[in-house]
Amino acid sequence: MKFIKSIFWMIFLLFLAQCSQKKGAIAEDLELGDLNYPLPGFDLEGSDPLAIVLADRIMSAMGGREAWNKTRYIKWKFFGRRTLLWDKESARVRIEIEQGDQVILLDLNQLTGKVFQQGIELTDPDSVSFYLAKGERIWINDSYWLVMPFKLKDTGVTLTYVKEDTTQSGELSDVLKLTFENVGVSPDNAYWVWVSKDQDLIKQWSYFTHFTDSLPQFVSPWDDYEQFGQILLAQGRGSRNLTEVAVLTTVPPQTFISL
After folding, report:
1. Residue 187 and residue 179: Cα distance in Å, rounded?
2. Strands 202-208 and 190-196, sheet pairing
3. Under 8 Å CB-to-CB from 248, ≥6 apart: which residues?
4. Domain-by-domain residue ranges, the chain?
5. CA 196 to CA 174: how far, in whole Å?
6. pTM score > 0.90 for this model?
């Protein structure tokens, strides 16, 4: 095991040296890696060293791990269907669904909360439980569409370097594959992400229903980056976009407990 880890770090450091002309001194790259620590359960041994370095570069280009950790409230509208306000620090989310005039207030740690339909709070335990579970699935899906670049070294993720390729818009990129183990509601999924060689930003992604699939369900741009607070977020997804994106420093106290 020690021999394998030694080989891993030799490859890792060799790649850092090869990339140093692009980013500056090797020490700067090592610092990026140190700062962008993996979450517990990230598949370090099963991930490619090159893919890990690229994940660190992406995090740096997006604002850095510290800026991401300090970002508390994120708001966005998902494809015109629903609006989410997420409190990262306390793991709470407010979901306003236009169809049916529904509001879900969910504690993501406890999976407890409140559900309102047309301004009236639901009290039937089975109905509340059903809609809170629905709210969790919505948050998992919709937040990934917005903040996926910050989650490349999350629990249960394995990163694989696939190849060099160009995006559909012709941008030369490195392609990474994300697979998952025992996380989320659909751990058999896989994603490919195209990382711009010029900017270290994800510029395209594709989704596979099962990690063994040869063809993706979709390929979509990941563009229209803007600065929100201390981090970058991308709103463009081709024919469907995320809108009303905002990073907030404060919200009204009742936001996650009442209408």
Report:
1. 8
2. antiparallel
3. 72, 73, 74, 75, 85
4. 2-63+147-242, 70-145+244-256
5. 7
6. no
Residues 118 and 127: their CA atoms lie apart, in Å, by 15
Whole-number Å distance between alpha carbons of 148 and 76: 14
Q: Walk along the chain (259 residues) and give the pLDDT tens digit of each residue.
A: 444 444 444 544 454 444 444 434 333 443 444 479 999 999 999 999 999 999 999 999 999 999 999 999 999 999 999 999 999 999 999 999 999 899 999 999 999 999 999 999 999 999 999 999 999 999 999 999 999 999 999 999 999 999 999 999 999 999 999 999 987 677 789 999 999 999 999 999 999 999 899 999 999 999 999 999 999 999 999 988 999 999 999 999 899 999 9
User: 193: left (phi > 0), else alpha (psi -120 to 50), else beta?
Assistant: beta
Distance CA 209, CA 168 (A): 21
Taking a C-beta distance cutoff of 8 angstroms, is the pair 61, 23 a contact?
no
CA 180 to chain centre: 13
